[in-house]
Write a structure and sequence with these properties.
Number of helices of chain C: 10
Order of helices and strands of chain C: HHHHHEEHHHHH
Distance between the termini of chain B: 39 Å
Chains: A mainly alpha, B alpha/beta, C mainly alpha
Shape of chain B: globular
Number of strands of chain C: 2
Largest interface: A-C, 62 and 53 residues
Radius of gyration of chain B: 21 Å
Largest sheet of chain B: 8 strands, mixed
Structural class of chain B: alpha/beta
Distance between the termini of chain C: 22 Å
Structural class of chain C: mainly alpha
Largest sheet of chain C: 2 strands, antiparallel
Strand content of chain B: 15-25%
Strand order of the largest sheet of chain C: 1-2
Helix content of chain C: 55-70%
Oligomer: heterotrimer
Chain lengths: 344, 331, 315
């Protein structure tokens, strides 16, 4: 088992390198940090030239990538434009944990900038995932047991519709109904902006209140998709021979459903949860924009708007890294849960 | 140790499946009875309704799309078809147990064998967990699994096919049921293992004194273990007899054809095995007339019009046929 | 000819405490399943007619006509869907926006299918080092956050391509950009499926026979193996159209997608959330149209999947 884990981790490294290369090249071609410079466009040609050299943009792409990866503190940079490299570089490179400094928030390390926003996104994501899985399990199992009933049919139809909706539609509808219309009708309404009311302060109660609509938007669609999947997985498991055997032994229905069936169904369910989690990081982008939630998604959008390449690269790499690691983790958990694999 | 008291009586059982393609007439009025300690073999080709009949007994059929249209299953003065689901749960596993064809898929792959054994005991008996465990070890010993104590923590995939079937048998007999229904338990196994399992079951049956219904399509197996046989075709019982009577004196053309199709060591080596012409009937149509008529070599005009009723010809030997196969004429 | 031996084991399972279904109930259910796909197809045809046929009733000039005096008007007889922030009629804009959204969906799916088939076929057929290389690349692409990449690429390439003139209409270059970007980021999923099919099919006897008679490789790939992979390709392509329309909507909603002067259902939603308190019609109508088209494509795709792969049994 340990050998399997080690092997997967070793395989992940070249994968991540390839990903980083592709992303880097893409970013270099797509962005021009000098153009926006956080709003402060340098006008004088000498300033532009100096900035170009400072950011290392005058070097060929492959060299820029190498510097990004392993830093340039082992070489000298030509800062004053005389063609002679004299100043030692200050970057340590991604492999040593240095993702560079933000251009927008001048001088602040990218890692710090991202780290500030990451927990906010995580709160949103983890809560959403929890709600999704719990709700979908209940609904999926219930409707699998009630297959062919009217409830099941209507539900399947509704879930299908829900699952086809784009997230902004759900978010906007949610906002419209639960916030604006409720307010008009004099009902207590849900807040739609930010993480907490500045007048009240960053209390847990405030955060929870402000989280309701964003979590609802994120969860709505995934919940539909998960419910459908859990339902069909349960149906498939319930059709297996060993369930027939369990019934013939006179075991109570609850035990058959939740022990015999669910334990088998949980394997594919664990797989999709594991693979889905890191994607939530990226998916938050639209939700955070709509609800002005101060998370990583907003940071990403701001970074693109203002040409903050290092931050954007940092976020992209973080997500790619999470995806790869989670794939490995999911495989490990699956292998651990399934006795057929565990004991081989 | 056979008690001659009839404890199970099935009357006019009809089971149908309402599928998008149409209604499947799987079981069309099956009646038979069973005495304590008796072994009844149910023979017929795939699709003749033998499995569905037994599943209907235990109400294991999925209700939509299946439906038990009518009939009675009287088990010790109780009609099983009229019991509530939770009352049935008390019957299943405890009074009547069932083992199935494919031991590979019939055991839950993610639960230990020990758990699958003890859960029956836990559900149906007042034994505490330790007692259940002890009994589970005894059961595994009894069915011939070596090193039973350690094997309790193993999972089904760690057993071979034959051993898995033994485990299934142990599970079924855990609460010493009065009746064991075995649905083709050896079909999926090697011939040598088959013999072992059959011997095991015969021994266990003697130890426990239970009755048994053994479903098979293999007439060879029947000869070695049954007291009585019923032959099914297209959801009907076409012949019922004591085992020796059946082999010596088959009364139904289908039974005769089955016996003739059997390769036998004591017969002259013929060039070809005789097969039954035609193909199995389409169960999507409501049966009219004798279902075997299209393939029968003795067919008469009455057979096509009217479905023969199962009638007793001589002591205990019943058949559903208008024709006397010895003379070739109508009875 | 169905006999009990063909009945799936699913029939012998959990008893449900609901009244047994009659034949009528079951027939209706099966018919209705097909009905969903047919309904989806009808809605699609309707949306198609709406967008392309509507052009006969409303000119593009009218759709782009700004009139700040009439800005942000609620739905009325003159403007059934209301007007937007610069006074343009939203109904007209949804007609022309729909054309672009649909075209984007179709062409992006086309690009995705082309690239996906090409890479999947080559990797699956030739195997070995080529397969390893291509699959390494595919896997890398699969691990990257697609939406974020779409956003980046779209934002920065959109300005670089000039506006195009087709059929007398000026279309923003960003449309071309987004078509290609969506196509170029969504092919990995299809490529994997195609590769799997090729891996299994290339060992079949009819392929060995073709090779033995000296048929050139490309002919084997395109004329022999590929037609057998139609089923999953068609299903995926259909769902790919919905995915492409959705993706464009997401990206445009954030302001990074299709640019002026071209309207799409997605970019009509841009910044609509700022006016949510005052002007619901800004987002309701384009939003509903997106939901409608995604839904109907999903219905259709589901029906196709059932029709083309009898082994999949979702009820």
């Amino acid at each position: 088992m340990t050998r399997y884990i080690v092997r997967r981790l070793l395989q992940a490294i070249p994968l991540l390198l390839v990903i980083s290369l592709i992303l880097f090249v893409m970013m270099q071609n797509a962005t021009d940090p000098l153009a926006t410079m956080g709003g402060r466009t340098p006008t004088r040609p000498e300033d532009r030239a100096r900035l170009t050299r400072q950011l290392g943009l005058d070097k060929p792409v492959y060299l820029q990538y190498i510097y990004w990866l392993i830093g340039n503190d082992w070489t000298k940079v030509d800062l004053d434009g005389d063609g002679v490299a004299e100043t030692p570089g200050k970057r340590h490179g991604v492999l040593r944990g240095d993702f560079g400094t933000s251009i927008v928030q001048t001088g602040r390390p990218v890692t710090t900038v991202i780290w500030e926003r990451l927990p906010n996104t995580l709160i949103l994501m983890l809560t959403s995932e929890f709600v999704i899985v719990l709700g979908a399990l209940l609904l999926g199992i219930y409707s699998a047991l009630r297959q062919y009933s009217l409830f099941d049919n209507i539900l399947t139809g509704l879930l299908f519709i829900a699952y086809s909706m784009p997230i902004f539609f759900v978010a906007l509808s949610g906002m419209y109904i639960f916030s604006i219309n409720f307010q008009r009708w004099g009902l207590p309404h849900l807040p739609t902006v930010g993480m907490f009311d500045p007048k009240i302060g960053k209390t847990t109660g405030q955060i929870i209140l402000h989280m309701i609509l964003p979590v609802f938007s994120i969860a709505f669609i995934s919940f539909a998709a998960y419910s459908r999947y859990i339902r069909s997985t349960m149906l498939e498991v319930l059709g297996q021979d060993y369930i027939r055997t369990a019934r013939s032994k006179g075991l109570p229905k609850r035990e058959i459903t939740f022990v015999h069936a669910l334990k088998n169904a949980s394997l594919p369910i664990v797989t999709i949860v594991g693979l889905d989690l890191p994607l939530l990081l990226g998916g938050a982008v639209v939700t955070e924009r709509i609800f002005a939630w101060p998370g990583m998604g907003r940071l990403f959008l701001d970074g693109i708007d203002r040409g903050d390449t290092p931050v954007v690269m940092g976020i992209l790499m973080l997500i790619a890294f999470a995806v790869v690691i989670f794939q490995i983790l999911t495989d490990i958990v699956y292998a651990w849960l399934d006795p057929r694999i565990r004991f081989d | 140790m056979t008690d001659n008291h009839t404890f199970l009586e099935v009357k006019d059982l009809k089971t149908r499946f309402h599928t998008p393609e149409g209604t499947v007439f799987a079981v069309n009025g099956v009646s038979f009875s069973l005495k304590e300690g008796e072994t009844l073999a149910v023979v017929g080709e795939s699709g003749c309704g033998k499995s569905v009949t037994m599943m209907s007994l235990l109400r294991l059929i999925s209700i939509p799309p299946g439906k038990i249209e009518c009939g009675e299953v009287i088990y010790r003065d109780k009609d099983l078809l009229k019991l509530t689901e939770s009352e049935m749960e008390h019957i299943r596993g405890k009074e009547i147990a069932m083992i199935f064809q494919d031991p590979m898929t019939s055991l839950n792959p993610v639960l230990t064998v020990g758990r699958q054994l003890t859960e029956t005991l836990r559900t149906h008996t007042p034994m505490n967990p330790d007692q259940c465990r002890e009994r589970a070890i005894t059961l595994l010993d009894w069915v011939g699994i070596p090193d039973a104590k350690n094997r309790l923590n193993d999972h089904p995939h760690q057993f071979s096919g034959g051993m898995r079937q033994r485990v299934m048998i142990a599970m079924a007999l855990a609460c010493t049921p009065s009746l064991l229904i075995a649905d083709e338990p050896t079909t999926a196994l090697d011939v040598t293992i088959q013999a072992q399992i059959i011997e095991l079951v015969k021994r266990l049956k003697q130890d426990v004194g239970m009755a048994m219904i053994w479903i098979t399509h293999d007439l060879g197996v029947v000869a070695g273990m049954a007291d009585r046989v019923i032959v099914m075709y297209a959801g009907f019982i076409v012949e019922e007899a004591l085992v020796d009577d059946l082999y010596d004196n088959p009364l139904h053309p289908y039974t005769m054809a089955l016996l003739q199709a059997l390769p036998r060591a004591d017969r002259r080596r013929e060039k070809n095995l005789k097969s039954i012409q035609g193909s199995p009937p389409n169960l999507l149509a409501e049966p009219v007339g004798c279902p075997f008529a299209p393939r029968c070599e003795f067919v008469k005009e009455r057979c096509v019009r009217e479905n023969p009723i199962l009638t007793e010809i001589t002591g205990g030997h019943k058949t559903a046929c208008w024709v006397d196969v010895k003379t070739g004429g109508l009875r | 000819m169905t006999t009990t031996q063909n009945l799936p084991d699913q029939l012998l399972v959990t008893e449900v405490e609901s009244p047994p279904l009659t034949l009528a109930d079951l027939t209706w259910r099966r018919f209705r399943r097909h009905k969903m796909a047919i309904f989806g197809a009808f809605v699609l045809v309707f949306l198609f007619l709406y967008s392309f046929g509507g052009a006969f009733f409303v000119t593009e000039k009218y759709a782009n006509k700004t009139n700040t005096k009439e800005r942000l008007q609620a739905p009325s007889a003159a403007h059934p869907f209301g007007t937007d922030t610069v006074g343009r009629d939203i109904l007209a804009r949804t007609i022309y926006g729909g054309q672009i959204s649909i075209v984007i969906g179709l062409t992006a799916a086309f690009v995705e299918v082309m690239v996906g088939i090409l890479i999947g076929a080559i990797a699956g057929y030739f195997g070995g080092k080529i397969d390893s290389l291509l699959m390494r690349f595919t896997e890398a692409m699969l691990n990257m956050p697609t939406l974020l990449i779409l956003i980046i690429m779209s934002k920065f390439f959109s300005d670089k391509i000039a506006n195009v003139n087709i059929l007398g209409r000026t279309i923003s270059g960003s449309v071309i950009v987004i078509i290609f970007i969506i196509g170029l980021t969504s092919w990995p999923y299809l490529a994997r499926i195609v590769r799997a099919e090729f891996l299994s099919l290339k060992e079949r006897e009819f392929i060995l026979a073709a090779r033995a008679t000296g048929t050139p490789n490309w002919e084997i790939i395109f004329k022999h193996i590929l037609p057998n992979t139609i089923a999953p390709v068609v299903v995926n392509a259909t769902l790919g159209v919905a995915n492409a329309i959705s993706s464009e909507a997401y990206v445009s909603f954030l302001g990074m997608g299709v640019r002026a002067p071209t309207a799409t259902w997605g970019n009509m939603l841009e910044n609509a959330y700022r006016y949510i308190e005052t002007a619901y019609w800004l987002w309701l109508f384009p939003g509903l149209l997106i939901v409608l088209i995604t839904l109907s494509i999903n219905f259709l795709g589901d029906g196709l999947r059932d029709a083309l792969d009898p082994r999949s049994r979702t009820v």
